[in-house]
Amino acid sequence: MRTFGLIGYPLSHSFSQKYFTEKFAREGISDARYELFPLSNVSELPDLLHRHPDFCGLNVTIPYKTSVIPYLHTLDTTAQAVGAVNCIRIHNSLLTGFNTDIVGFEQSLRQILTNRKAQEGAQALILGTGGAAKAVAWVLKNMNIPYLFVSRQPEDRDQILYETIAGLSPAVYRIVINTTPLGTYPNVNECPPIPFDWLQPEHLVYDLVYNPPETLLLRLAAERGCMVKNGLEMLHLQAKAAWRIWSDQ
To answer: What SS3 class is residue 129?
Structure first.
């Protein structure tokens, strides 16, 4: 039995197991299963691999998209450029890291921007600086959309504090993308500390969180008239890309 799964911590919010289990049943893939493998520390990965010699592929979620890299044998060129991994192919005991977040996010974002002229020429704010933020930044750079990271503890010149957002022009920074886990089930009352009175109806607020479908961030943004989007479509698109990688040995 080929085994696929998801590593991260915690995993109570994940839809991945349901997605792949339904996919296998729908497509008559009887020799594969998908399980959740919560790891309290990424250093537990080698032992997990030893206990599951039938592993063929893993997805990686928060908080291990960057810290998993030293445990891999090689990286796909895009994952290497991004500096984050959310998909691992395991073949002949070799672990290769990929980043399918960029596939899912770019396809989803391009579709939105094609249908929404209000975002033409817009710049973006990326909330968070983790592995998902790196994938989002790579996509924005590829699409020639200037961006700033927003962090509680800025470390580089392209990072600003949340308190600084209010001083930016809302007419310029019309795309806001949350890459943090804030608001993820069960902590549904959490929200990135952005100034909501700064948001305008011209804003697109994209939250990579998909459970719950409407986070507190998206609800408050929608109340300001913004266009809002959760991460479920991105999840499906990146999962499809992961399966193509795992199936193409």
So the answer is: coil
